[in-house]
Amino acid sequence: MRRSVLAGLAALIPVAVLAQANTGGPPATPVRVVNDTIFGTVVPDPYRWLENVQDSAVLQWLHAQDNYTRHLLAAIPGHADLAARIHALSNANPSISAPNFGGKRLFYFKRLPGEEVNKLYVRDSLGAPEHLLVDPERLQQAGGPHWALDYYSASWDGRYVAYGASPAGSENSIMRILDVTTGKLLPDSIDRAQFGGPSWRPDGRAFFYNRLQKLPPGAPTSEKYRNSRIYLHTVGQSDTTDVPLVGLGVMRRIPLEPDDIPFMNTIPGTAWAFATIAHGVQNEVTAYVAPLADVRDSTTVWRPLIAPTDSIVLFDVHGDDIYLLSHLHAARYRVLRTNLKSPDVAHAAVVFPESQGVVVVFGTSRDGLYIKTLDGGLGRLFRLAWGAAPPAAQPVALPYDGAINSFSTILSRDGALFSLESWTHSPLWFASDQKTGHLTDTGLLPVSPVDFSAIKSEEVRVRAPDGTMVPLSIVHRRDAKQDASHPLYLDGYGAYGFTYDPYFGPAWLAWFEQGGVYAVCHVRGGGEFGEAWHQAGRGPTKSNTWRDLIACGDYLVAQKWTSPARLAGSGTSAGGIEIGMAVTERPELFGAALPRVGTLNPLREMLVGVSGPANRPEFGDPTTAQGARELLAMDT
Questions:
Q1: How would you label 429-466 residue by residue, b for 16+ Cβ within 10 Å and e otherwise?
Q2: How far from chain centre, in Å, is Cα 292?
Q3: Average pLDDT over residues 394-411
């Protein structure tokens, strides 16, 4: 997650300055109360009318709020200069996504300084020159919306690449296919292909993909992501001839609920196909296996492989062995192995046992299994050579402590590609060399020109009200004094087992130049210490999430990094629950709060939101009395 800081910086401008710019207060928001009775509790909603964003009255309200905010910000002394500085820093260096191989070719998204959207690039090999493959700016027609690339997937030999593009940031992907050698765009066009990218067959002439249902006119938006199916598409043919393979009503061998999302996984260099079922936002998956050569239509004989009760969240394959990432009886996860010819997950061998670090991800390469762990918020990398007896995994030496934020392996190559960055080091892409034990800078990204040499970071632990020690990252200028004078931006998230890893944010330098301090509270609900940490901040235990943030805020004030008048709290998306409840319980602790596209009304969202039903396993089910109580307790 990368966060814009401009709004956060503006939020911390002294209240007195804002008052001088205030020429009459924000536009009024009419109250039109709608009362819902939920399991005997009357829940008033004074702003239900704002949900209809097509209503002219709602649009007028939005424009009035926007105009007022812009007027207020423009009146702040130095605002324009600060915005220009942030813009310059934000566009100082390029960024790339995790590269993926198709044959010898290497594919990746890249965004150059000043560009708004990712473009798709290719290299004929890791050290070869790069070539631009797909530029979404060229997809825009005169007077039409801009386009963005959502995903891509290369065929096993790298000849073709399928990519999803959506208009106006809608994420309503339309899938197209490009011949990489000739640069020719094929006529294939598949809409409702939002969940990409596809999984190719070995011959590169067909692939499997998930497609959303075609909703009838007037259907509620909450139906959009329900009843999706897996299809087989042959390159060069119309999507109307695509064959349904898995989905509700397609076959009995794989039972599905309407909110389940099926995917097909094929792994280059293996002979197996996997039908994987995602259950909303639940991390644990269901999976079935079949010989890849047999998967052609809905008559495929699938064997059950993984059930949610196995607590498996990730798998990869080497030959006929499947490697599984499980938190069953291992809150910090462990890696298991079983054979696909006669799989027995319940009695799978342990190849990487649970340890102090949390196992986050792993991948199979030609020379071994590469495993990333998280040790107190810092990334670690291990290699387990094929044939080595566990626990013989060897650590890969890293040049500095930081976060391994992207990771890529393939069975046709030795080693792993991964990015390493920290609060004060810009990301670089390294290739591991198992023969020498050294890392090589791939040159895919240059060192950032933004100089953080005057900035330092520190990691501390803060005691929460129940005694739990919560990690807190603090980033500041080296010469900063703890005299309670600094404006401080405190961020957190705490949902889905997501880990808030260290990252290099060039724009934060503008904040530090103004004497600001940046802090991240690694609250419960995330995955910093494994599944137990996640479970301690979801559903009935969600209150730990915002109380951890409050504890970190109290610590920062007590240590004189800031004062309540200069402390701003923030949370993005699901982090809106965290900051919304924190300022509700302790309004005197914060000078400002910034929920960014924040979930502040989860009870309502779980009932009517487009993705509400899929999110119920994380927050609560409003159709049950217990779930409704849990949601009300976190609803601001």
A1: bbbbebeeeebeebebbeebebebeebebebeebebee
A2: 29
A3: 91
**What is 311-447's CATH superfamily?**
Prolyl oligopeptidase, N-terminal domain (2.130.10.120)
Polymer length in residues for the chain: 636
Residues 6+ apart with CB under 8 A from 428: 419, 420, 421, 441, 445, 447
Q: For 243-293, how does the pLDDT look when each residue is reduced to its tens digit (9 = 90+)? A: 999 999 898 889 999 999 999 999 999 999 999 999 988 899 999 999 999
pLDDT band for position 220 (cuts 50, 70, 90): confident
Q: How many angstroms separate the CA atoms of 249 and 228, rounded?
A: 11
Place of tokens 């260099």: 269
Residue 34 is given by DSSP the state E
Give CATH 2.130.10.120 domain extents, the chain. Answer: 311-447
d(CA 366, CA 412): 6
Q: What share of the chain is helix, strand, coil (3-state, %, to 5)?
A: 20, 35, 45
Q: How is domain 6-89+450-633 classified at the CATH fold level?
A: Rossmann fold (3.40.50)
Q: Give the pLDDT confidence of 38-83 residue by residue, as tens digits.
A: 999 999 999 999 999 899 999 999 999 999 999 999 999 999 999 9
Q: If pLDDT is split at 50, 70 and 90, which confidence band does 23 have? A: low
Q: Which residues are within 8 A (CB) of 475 and not within 5 positions of it... i.e. 6 or more apart?
A: 423, 424, 455, 456, 457, 508, 512, 517, 518, 519
Question: Which pair of tokens denotes residue 631?
Answer: 């949601």
- Whole-angstrom CA distances from 175 to 172, 180, 215, 233 are 10, 15, 19, 11
Phi and psi at 26, nearest 5°, equal -70, 160
Question: Which residue from 549, 556, 555 is spatially nearest to 582, judged by alpha carbons?
Answer: 549
Q: Calculate mean pLDDT across residues 21-44.
A: 87
Q: Which residues of 373-409 are buried (b: 16+ CB within 10 A; e: fewer)?
A: bbeebbbbbbbbeeeeeeeebeebebeebbbbbbbbb
Spatial distance between the Cα atoms of 112 and 120, rounded to a whole number of angstroms: 11
- The reported pLDDT for the residue numbered 140 is 83
The segment(s) of the chain belonging to CATH 3.40.50.1820 are 6-89+450-633
Query: Rounded distance, CA 66 to CA 485, Å?
Result: 31
Q: Say whether 100 sits in a helix, a strand or coil.
A: strand
DSSP string, 115-139: -SS-EEEEESSTTSPEEEEE-GGGG
**Identity of the residue numbered 306:** I
Could you read off the pLDDT of 559-578 as tens digits, one per residue? 999 999 999 999 999 999 99
C-alpha span between 416 and 414 (Å, rounded): 7
pTM, entire model: 0.86
Strands (E) located in 81-168: 95-96, 100-102, 105-111, 119-123, 130-134, 147-154, 160-167
pLDDT in tens, 164-177: 999 987 889 999 99
Residue 491 tokens, joined: 């961020």
Please give the Cα distance from 474 to 484 (Å, whole number). Answer: 14
Can you read off the two tokens belonging to residue 123? 């290299």
Joined tokens for residue 94: 């390029």
As a dihedral over the C-alpha atoms of residue 406, residue 412, residue 414, residue 418, rounded to 10 degrees, the angle is -10
102 neighbors 177 (Cβ within 8 angstroms)? no
CA-based radius of gyration for the chain? 25
